[in-house]
Amino acid sequence: MIAIFDWDGTLCDSVEHIVSAMRDAAAELALEPPAPAEVRDIVGLGLPQALARLFPGLDDGRRAALATAYSQHFSSPERGASLLFDGAMDTLQALRARGIELAVATGKSRRGLNRVLAGLGLADFFEATRCADETCSKPHPRMLNEIMTDRGKSAGEVIMIGDSEYDLAMAREAGVRSVAVSFGVHGSERLAAFEPLAIIDELPELLDLPIWR
Question: What predicted TM-score, i.e. pTM, was given to this entire model?
Answer without folding.
Answer: 0.94
